[in-house]
Design a protein that fits this description.
Elements (H helix, E strand, L loop, with lengths): L2 E5 L11 H15 L3 E7 L2 H6 L4 E6 L8 E7 L6 E6 L1 H4 L7 E2 L3 E2 L3 H16 L11 E5 L5 H6 L7 E6 L7 E2 L1 H6 L13 E2 L2 E3 H8 L2 E4 L2 H6 L3 H4 L3 H9 L3 E3 L29 H11 L9 E9 L5 H13 L4 E9 L1 H13 L4 E5 L3 H10 L2 E4 L9 H7 L3 E5 L2 H6 L5 H5 L6 E3 L4 H15 L2 H13 L4 H17 L1
Parallel strand pairs: 1-2, 1-8, 2-5, 8-9, 9-13, 13-14, 15-16, 15-18, 16-17, 18-19, 19-20
Antiparallel strand pairs: 3-4, 4-5, 6-7, 10-12, 11-12
Helix pairs in contact: 1-20, 11-14, 12-13, 12-18
The structure holds adenosine-5'-diphosphate and alpha-D-glucopyranose.
Adenosine-5'-diphosphate binds next to helix 1, strand 15, strand 16 and helix 14.
Length: 487
């Protein structure tokens, strides 16, 4: 049994802004089910303290650079037996708003201090200096918020092996040199082969340089980030790590208990491959919910997303707008929140086509399940997508994903065309260039295929047969952990 400390700044269902939270719950649960002694470490945000009922203080530590002692609180991840440690510094984490800021005011001004404190606490637990009397064999960090932890323990003897997973290279935690100096971090970290990045401090680089192994969440994204287009200036470093055999892409899995059309309690009617006909009841329920007419033969397109440029929201707006203007028999239901201009553009699209567009600006767990179950296709025209989870949920719900051929989307969807369609391998629709024209053409292909119910149903069944549970991917992490421990 390996001891694994899994560090993340979001964990579903306690705190979530995106897929990182889903993975930070479902991967540890999968590892625990395979008899690993895995513990999660997370900041004690107000939402977490409110959501958990059994919390006890198990340690108190003093961290360099911070005056007040920090408590480590212990609880259990809901719906599991995985222990969770919360780093409690009320001054930094007990506040109203999201984990990184508020929609109105943007990022918290003290994020560098907040996640330095978090990383220092992770390092203290990893080195068994916190009084918990438990030292991991593996420290597995995720995204920039935890990036300093591998750097802080890199030179310690008796340290655990360290893994750093990139969930999204677009968010790097960049701050000025003044901020770095105010954080009281070891000055030795400040150089170009350390956390310094063109005169800025990069939290992300802490993980990329100092972790024993770097992973990202799909094989294609692992290749993409070694290129100029996707690397944000880090492509040289990442290529170097890849050449050393120290960069691997492991496709995310999904929580198949939570995302299961056969048992999903949020949806109108449960269904499986055998009872696939019942999916249509969910379409009707969804149309009713958004006051859209239940028109014969209408292709219902769903989308659930952070409304940011990454997700190609503008492509959706343009392409769907054109198809609606052309009178195509389609409907769009969109759930999301993010940049104000996209929210506004979506409101305008709905106002122009009130009987064809449904919109919910905001966050809703329940609605996200209902859209997955009720839509015919799921739109995900991302400019880049490290892995993407919604296309995986969509496959499982027989809701054919329409995706750009990038990152984890490339690795998980088989286009419904040519030999793949003929041979029964297709699971969705794919296009290459990030243009509204290509998306529109692809949607026209989907509209065309939808007129052939038998073929459509075959693609749905193939999609639902795919296995994107954690079974395979969590084993890949274990092989990686073993290799690190054996070397
Ligand atoms: P990312 O992490 O880049 O946002 P992913 O596809 O990996 O993309 O994961 C997004 C997760 O967040 C999914 O679980 C998705 O259902 C969820 N999600 C995104 N926006 C919303 C929303 N407005 N309401 C409910 N769930 C949402
Ligand atoms: C990031 C990526 C997304 C990925 C998720 C979980 O938020 O944008 O593609 O699925 O992390 O790894």
């Amino acid at each position: 049994m390996r001891k694994i400390l899994f560090a993340s700044s979001e964990v579903h269902p306690l705190i979530k802004t995106g897929g990182l939270a889903d993975v930070s719950a479902s991967l540890p649960i999968a590892l625990a089910q395979q008899d690993q002694d895995v513990r999660i470490i997370l900041p004690a945000y107000r939402q977490c303290l409110e959501a958990l009922d059994k919390i006890e203080t198990v340690a108190t530590i003093k961290l360099d650079g911070f005056h007040a002692p920090i408590e480590i609180l212990q609880s259990t991840l809901p719906n599991s037996e995985v222990p969770i440690w919360l780093v409690n510094s009320p001054e930094h984490f007990d506040r109203e708003g999201g984990p990184y800021g508020t929609t109105e005011a943007g990022d918290w001004e003290d994020n560098a201090a907040r996640f330095t404190l978090f990383s220092r606490a992770i390092a203290a637990v990893a080195m068994d200096q916190s009084g918990l009397d438990w030292q991991p064999d593996i420290l597995h960090c995720n995204d920039w918020q935890t990036g300093l932890a591998p750097a802080l323990i890199a030179n310690e003897s008796d340290r655990p092996a360290t893994v750093f997973t990139i969930h999204n290279l677009a968010y790097q935690g960049l701050y000025s040199q003044d901020v770095f100096e105010a954080l009281d971090l070891p000055p030795s970290l400040w150089h170009s082969e350390g956390v310094e990045f063109y005169d800025l401090m990069s939290f992300m680089k802490g993980g990329l340089i100092y972790a024993d192994h770097v992973t990202t969440v799909s094989p294609t994204y692992a290749d993409e980030i070694c290129t100029y287009e996707f690397g944000y200036g880090l492509e040289g470093l990442l290529s170097h790590r890849a050449d050393q055999g120290r960069l691997t892409g492991i496709l995310n899995g999904i929580d198949t208990d939570e995302w299961d059309p056969e048992r999903d309690s949020y949806i109108d009617k449960n269904y499986s491959i055998k009872t696939i006909r019942h999916k249509s009841a969910n379409k009707e329920a969804l149309q009713k919910l958004f006051s859209l007419p239940e028109k014969e033969g209408v292709l219902l397109m769903g989308t659930i997303s952070r409304l940011v440029s990454q997700k190609g929201v503008d492509l959706t707006l343009d392409a769907v707008g054109k198809l609606l203007d052309a009178g195509e028999n389609i409907q769009l239901i969109c759930l999301g929140s993010g940049e104000a201009s996209y929210e506004q553009d979506l409101r305008v699209l709905r106002a122009q086509h009130p009987d064809k567009v449904g919109l919910h600006i905001g966050y809703s767990e329940e609605l996200s399940h209902q859209i997955e179950a009720g839509s015919d296709v799921f739109l995900m025209p991302s400019r880049f997508e490290p892995c993407g989870l919604n296309q995986l949920y969509s496959l499982r719900y027989g809701t054919l994903p329409v995706v750009r051929n990038t990152g984890g989307l490339a690795d998980s969807v088989v286009d419904a065309a040519g030999a793949n369609l003929k041979n029964g391998f297709s699971t969705g629709f794919k296009f290459e260039a990030a243009t509204a024209e290509e998306l529109e053409e692809t949607l026209l292909r989907a509209i065309g295929l939808f007129k052939h119910p038998r073929i459509w149903r075959k693609v749905m069944v193939t999609a639902m047969e795919q296995d994107y549970s954690w079974e395979k991917s969590s084993k890949a992490y274990q092989v990686l952990y073993d290799n690190l421990l054996n070397n």
